[in-house]
Structure formats: C-alpha cells, structure tokens
Amino acid sequence: MPHGDKTFTIPFKITDELTLPKVLIETAKKYGHNKAAMREKEFGLWKPITWQDYLDRVKYIALGLNSLGLQREDKVAMIGDNRPEGLWAEMGTLSAGGIAVWLFQDSLLDEVAYIINHSDAVFLFGEGQEEVDKALSIKDRCPYLKKIIWDDPKGMRGYDDPMLISLKEVMRLGRELEQKDPGVFERTVDQGLTKDVALLFYTSGTTALPKGALLSHYNLLTMGQAMMGVDPCTPEDDFVSFLPFAWIGEQMMSISSGLQVGFTINFPEEPETAQENIREIGPHVMFAPPRMYEQMTRTVQVKNLDSSWIKRNIFNWAMKVGYRVADLKFDKKPVPAGMQFLRWLAYVIVFKKLRDHLGLSRVRNAYTGGAAMGPDHFRFFHSLGVNLKQIYGQTEIAGISVLHRKGDIKFDTVGTPIPGTEVKITEEGEIISKSPSVFLGYYKNPEATEKTLQDGWLYSGDKGFIDEDGHLVVFDRSKDVMILHDKSIFAPQYLETRLKFAPFIKDAWVIGHERAYITAVICIDYAVVGKWADDKKLNYTSYHELSQKPEVYDLVEKQIREANRSLKKPAKVHKFLNLYKEFDADDEELTRTRKLRRAFVENRYKVLVEALYQDTDSVHMDTTITYEDGRVSQIKADLHIRKIPIEEGK
Amino acid sequence: MEADQRGPVMLKVDEIHMYFGKVAALSGVSIDVRKGEIHSIIGPNGAGKTVLLNCINGLYHPQKGSITFEGQEISKMRPHNRAKLGLSRTFQKIELFKGMTVLDNIRLGRHIHMKSGILSGAVYFGKTAKEEVETRQYLEEEIIDLLEIEAIRNKTVAMLPYGLQKRVELGRALALNPKLLLLDEPLAGLNLEEVEDMARFIIDISEDEKWKVTCILVEHDMGVVMDISDQVSVLNFGNKITTGTPQEVQANPQVVKAYLGEEDLYATRR
Lengths: 650, 270
Prior knowledge:
The structure holds 2 protein chains of 2 kinds. Chain A is α/β, with parallel strands linked by helices. Chain A has 21 helices and 30 strands. In chain A, the strands form 8 sheets. Chain A has a 5-stranded parallel β-sheet, with helices on both faces. In chain A, helix 1 (20-31) runs antiparallel to helix 2, helix 12 packs across helix 13 (337-358) and helix 12 crosses helix 14 (375-383). Chain A is globular, with a radius of gyration of 25 Å. In chain B, helix 3 (102-110) runs parallel beside helix 6 and helix 5 crosses helix 6. Classes of the chains: A alpha/beta, B alpha/beta.
C-alpha cells in the first residue's frame, strides 16, 4: 500500500530579507529547465511549465505591472479559475512589491465591487470574457482601478475599452523594460523584506461583511515551514490545484508550501474535469474542505447502491474489514495478523481500484479543514486506508495552527498545534492561538483588529477545549452553539454532519437554540434523489416537486431516525421539512467556502422556523432567488412538515 | 452589418420549387446568402424552412430552380459532394451516433479531410499516424475548446443531456471545416443558459478570425434571431415574404400578418 513517510527539509532559512519571490528565484536557479514547476492540461494534453519558465513569466508580468505604474504596496486583485496564469499574476504582483488580493470566482458583482474598493486595488487580473464583463460593469464604481488584465482571448475580439489590456501585452511591456534596464527585476525583488505585506485576504464571513486580513511574507513562510516540518513533502511530489485561490488553504499548498519545497502543481483542464484530472495525476498530497470528501463519499455510496448484488456484497465485506482496522488504529490497538491479512485482501480486491477512481491511489496525506467534518465521513476514508487528517486554522493565522499527527488521529478532534504554535482556551471557552504566522491585522478596520488580536494572541471566535491527550476539540462558532431546553450545550454542526453522511441529504440545518425541541431543515441532493425517484418510477419535474414527495420525506425520515438513535433525548430531532431548493452561496445562505450562515438563514426562513414550532403540518413560503448574473425571480411554495415520533431511550 | 460592407453572394437560391405529390412545400423561393453573414430563416410551422435547408444540402432535389454555391451549380449534386465543397449542417432532431463517444462523433465529421484509407489506417504507421495526431490536435484546439466540451469528450453520446448533444452535433458539423453552416433549430429544447451558450458559439463561429463561417439559421427563438442575425428571411406556406435586416423584418406588415394569431412565436425566453 502506498504509504511511508518521506523526509525533506526546506532549504531556506527565514531571515529579515527572505520573501516569496526570492524563494522562487532560488528554486528556479536550482532546477532551471530540468523540472516541472507546474503542469496544465490543455487541449487534452498535460503540458509542463519548468521552473525557469515560471520565473520568466513572473518576471515579465512584474516588470509589466511596474511599467504600468504599480508602486510598492499597491494592491492587485485577481479573479478566475485555477490556472498557471493565476499563480504567475500573484507572484508577479509580489515580485513587483505589490499586495495580492484574490476574489472567489463565483463572487457576485456587489462582492467584487466591495472588495476592489475596500482594498483600493489598482489592477484587476481576470481570466477571460466572463471576468472582464464583471469588471467592466463595475468599473464606474471603482475609482482606483486603472487596468483590467485578461489572458484568455476567447470571445474577447469585440472589446476595445481602454481599461483592458491582455496579459501578453503586459508581458511585452515587461520585456521592454528589461531591455531598457537590465537587472531591474532582481533589484526590485531585492528591495522586498520579510515583514512586507504579501496578501490581503478577505475572510468569507459567516456573520458580516468580509474583513481583509493582512498577511506578511513572514507569516506565509513560517506557516509553510511549520506544516512541512510535520508532514514533509518532497520536490518529487505532485499536487493538484483545483480549489479557489481565494481560499487560504489553497495558498497554503500552492504558495507557502509549494514554493518552498518545490513540488509540482497540476492544474485541471476545466473545473468540470477536476475529478478526472486528479485521477490522472494521482497527487501525493491533497487539501480540500469537507464538502469535497462528502461528495466523494456520496459518489461511492450511490455507485454501490447501483451495482450488482455480488459487487455490493464484496464492497460491504471490504468496508466491514476496513472499518474494523480503522477503529483499531483510532484506538491505538495492534491489528492482529489475521485482520491484517483480510485488510490486505480487501485492499487488493476493492480499495485499490476504488482509491484509484477517487484519485487517491498515491495520496500520502489528505487534509480537510475550513469546516466541520462528520465522524462518519472520517471513518469512511480511514477504512479505505486514506490517511485523512484534520487541519484547524483560519485566514488570520495563514491557514493552519493545529493538525493531526501520524498515528495519533482522533476523528472528533483536530489534532495538536504545529511547531511554533501555542493554543490556549480562555475562561469563556474561546480558542486563542499565538504563532509567527498570526496576521498583521485587518485592513482599514482597527476595531475588528483590536478585538481579534490581543497581546499577540489571535482570538478565533470558536469554542472548544483541549482533551486529555492534548488534542484540540473545536466545538463550533461561539455564536452557533445551541443551548437546549434542558440547559445543556449542543453543537448543531455535529448533527448536521451526521445527517449529511446519508447520500440523499446534501445540506442540513438544525434549529433548536433555546427552544422546546430540535427541528431540522433538509436540502435533498437533487442528482441522487432524482436517480432514486427515476428507479422508483416517481414523477417529478423540479427540485421543489421532488423534495415534497411523501416518499422522499420517508427517505429523509429514516435517516433522521437513524441519527436520533445515538442522541440523548433533548438533542433528538422532533420535526423536519424538506426545503424547495438547495442552499446557495449566491443567495448568501452559504459562505463561498460553503459554510452555513445561520443568522442569515434564520432570518430569511423565519416563516419556516416559526411553523416548525407550531402545531401545523404545512407552511407557505413566498420568496425570491438571485441568479449569478443578478437576475431575481420569485418563488411560492407549500412545504410539508413531518413529525418524528421520539422513542424513549438514552 | 451595413449594406456597403456586405460580402459577395456565397449561396444563391434561385426560384426553387419543391413538391411532394401535389403539395407545394416551396413555390419559387429565392434567397441570397452573402459571405460572412448570419442569415436566419423564420416562419410559422410548416412554412418550408427545413425543406429549404434540405434542398440546400442535398437531401431533397427541387423540381425547379437552381442553387449556386460560390458560382457553382449544385442543385443536382449529391450531399457528400456538397459537403466536400464546404457545406455542413446540424439537424432539428439530433442525428448523432448514440453509441459512440463524443470524440468519435466529432472525428467522423473530419473524415472528409483524411487521406489515409482502411488499410493504412489498420497498420497505423508513418503518414497515417501523423495525420491522425494532427486531426486530434485540430479537434482539441479548435472545436472541443471552442464548445467547452472537455469534460465529456470520452463520454458516450446517448448518456449526455439533450443540450450537450446539440453542442456535439455542432462540433461534428464544424469538424468539416465548413464555409457555409446550416443550423436547423439549434436552440430548440434548450434551457435559458444553454440557449445563451449556443448563441455565443454561433456568434464565435461567425465572427472569429479562425472560423468566419457563414451561417444559415432556422430558428423559432425570435429573441436570439433578432439579436444575432445580419439578415432575416421570412417564409410562409412555401413562399418567401421578405428578406431584410432584423429591424426591417420586424416592421414589415406582411410579416406581422403571417404571424397573426401565433403570438407565441414572438415570445422570447427573456
């Protein structure tokens, strides 16, 4: 089985002068054209970009930005899918002394305008027509913005706005500047200091407007070294970059760790082909939020339900063996020889193929973070032999502060602090941490900075505790912790993640703070339930209609009863309803990293919540939904409420 | 496009008559399609739009009249010979090979440009292999990229949703590298997002330096037709009522009359 730890020490010592661009120059010097820094799948083929190519492009972009008038500490915003040009633009900005601001690809116009204005960005890197259209429609609202830079020429022939400039043209300007003044790039990079600000990253904000966190080169470099100190990657490793660059976790891998170690970053052809491309690459290391692993689990479960009797039984047998071994390992007990043999058999027959299909055939360390992950999903991956670990951190600490160690994994914890990091719990139960990677503060928001940064300690706003093994247990956002009617405390996320282990349930929202009992709002998975309904010959025309079928309610009810069984009485779900749509970040119900914005949904679905606590079995809903291009449409719906009989028990 | 900038006539349909038994499907229809334009043909159901397309690409042979393509009389020519001249089309009801992959379907459209025969293809060596690689490169760079179907290139066509199948059909028509593309209701049955995508592809094919394909578009979605067409011809009961720019056609009282009582034809999806 492909495991075994590697050792590799990052060859950079963090001084007062080391910056990310200097690391890039050194690495490019070392590997030149002999090693691929990146690969991109284009026109059906994987095309390598060597370290020297990478540096050259960054250089000309940096000089191009300089000749367009970029000053030190100017902000440069970026938006677009994961692609080499995105990283070039970011590193080009840093090399020229600028500060990089990444935006989520699917941000709505108002969000884009807000961040560009708040950060006073002077340039915007977009990918192609879609981003250019977005940028042009808000440019009048963004007085600081000077140029919009695009790199994909598709559909761009009719555009002649003077604000637009192609990446090619920027690089041509860069080349010109270099010819006029050889060595100017190196001199500009030399001026950079470790304490300079590198990134201005907007936190997704489950509660309020996004806040801009300032991260220095020092923050990012120390973070990368601390993480690689725990789980070293080697320059021979492959990593697939497919999650938004605007997510700090992706920066952690592609920039902080990737650049210092020098592993190869692979870019999928299109967002839709990511899963297929991951399989082709078979990365050694992977970091994704729980939803990605949830999706993988769902795929496996659904395919299993669909397969023939014999395959299903073999799979179920293999999973049983896998779970047994995983549980023994969680308990730190030895695995008996007979069990080891069965585990090997299960691997050869089932897991090897399965892991290959999921793109996990070579993975040494798979990480998840950014939101809570349910214990069921966690056990599932460990039973396949995938070394899945939790990461805990936030943008304000450059992404990571706490991590599971090899052989010391507990699925209800997030592990222990990484080197150089101290984690404490305040008297109120809030998690606070201190490390070299703690950010400089929020941009133009001293009040928020004062609240979050106290004596060098970062106040996370998360509740938690440290267990007997020294592991950190994250309870939930302080605001999200519920007090049940018997005055006990309860984390709704725990129940939600349990419910989401059912392939039919895409999202769940558990309500019950200071209420007589617990209720839930369920979003079914359209694809999975749709397929199930097709097999049962149930007619439906839309998500809404499907979600309201009594048969679908039965399906969900079964799942909730299952979850109820292991809960103490006050925490059992008494009533639920199926929502007429999925939760969506465009409707502000989720953050861009797909965390539920509880306060928002509570307000938006007030009618539903009230009905769930009245003696009624249906509720009428009248609301609007927003499309990505800003169109709005109205929805009227009648939703059933189903009561679940509560069995006496624990 | 302004009248003075219009290109030379590429396709000239001159007074064609098409009868099925005693039913006249087309009675004396003439249309000039100029190089570089998107020329839409609209009309109520049964007006003869598809029949006209079938006459142009050779599925039907009109009893009277002539069709000239780039100065060459083609009305007696067989369809595959017209394809060689650079005429390509998509169908109202999808006509793909359902059991084959997307790539194979599109590759088939390229067949006309391949020189190697069955024997050398079986050996796959030297020139044949090179030709094969070049073909694949062309399909990837020009068609799959344009139509954004990377994620489905190895999927079997029958398993794809309708909207994507329509796109694959367009891909196959493009693989021929046509000069003139006949599109028979490319937007029918698509949802709003798919309609927008498809309209964008049609504009790309028409305007992009690499393609510059002249298009004849038969379509019921008036919103798109009036948006993207350079010229619009209106058919009714096998007769042409008028040809003109979208504005002219919309203002024509005869057109309005032909559509009277069929208000939904003017209804657009927007």
